[in-house]
Amino acid sequence: FVAPAICCGWRNPGDLDTILKGIGSDLKLVSVHNYTTTTCGHKNVTVAELLSPELMQKFDDLSKKLVAVAHQNNLPIALAETNSASCGGMAGVSNAFASAVWGLNYMFNVAQDGYTNINFHFSYRTGGSAYNPVQTFSWKSGGEEHFRNVAQPLYYAMYMFARRASGEHFLPAAIKTESNITAFATTACPTCEVHVFVINKDEKASGQVSVHVAGHVGAASLLMLQAPSLHSMAADVRYGGQQFDTDGHIGTPSTTSVAPGENGDYSFTLPNASAAVLSVAR
Description:
Layout: E1 2-6, H1 13-23, E2 29-38, H2 47-50, H3 53-72, E3 77-86, H4 98-113, E4 118-120, E5 134-141, E6 144-151, H5 153-164, E7 169-171, E8 181-187, E9 194-200, E10 207-211, E11 220-226, E12 238-239, E13 256-258, E14 266-270, E15 274-280
Parallel strand pairs: 1-2, 2-3, 3-4
Antiparallel strand pairs: 5-6, 7-8, 8-9, 9-15, 10-14, 11-12, 11-13, 11-15
Helix pairs in contact: 1-3, 3-4, 4-5
């Protein structure tokens, strides 16, 4: 069994522990649900609310307790249903570039909290859902129905994480800034390259970034996921200058070579509404 897929009032350590003990040894994977915000009851969600560090911290505080309960029962735990806002997401937020920087940061937090995997939710509601990672549009022509798929900003974040971080080991990472910018570092093995992610969730901040990777002064490459603003939609999102086509294909992303300075640090410009990954060779 995979269970109990709890959410809402049931999502607390005490109830989770009771349910796990009640199911017993047939349970192989614990599953919980979470939505960062909600549009249920016609509530509105803003970009600032979605990207709030306090909101992410609130999620982490509860998640670590739920993960601890699962591990105390000798079970792995998955975030089996999640997205930016329950009840279909918030138009102009859940389908804007803000969802990409939120989603990328969120995946790192979910992994650090101890979940084994994360499933982003699709919903086909009347009138559409704003948070689907891929939107499908249809039209009729010549008696045939045609379909076009459009990768949304969140999908680009999922792709970036999958290609550069999924399954890797975390390395200690710290950042010095007063802006809403976060940093994470991963590597696949002791002799593999190090991936340093810098995620800009600030509505105004941009500028020069300096990265120090202990013990590394080798060649590095920089890959950018960016858009003109946090409110930009899918048509303006670029992953290394590339976009997904309707069949899910994407061209080879362009990267920039970054050489270490005299002090061994790597410097590059971080635009507003962007996420950068610096890949440093061992």
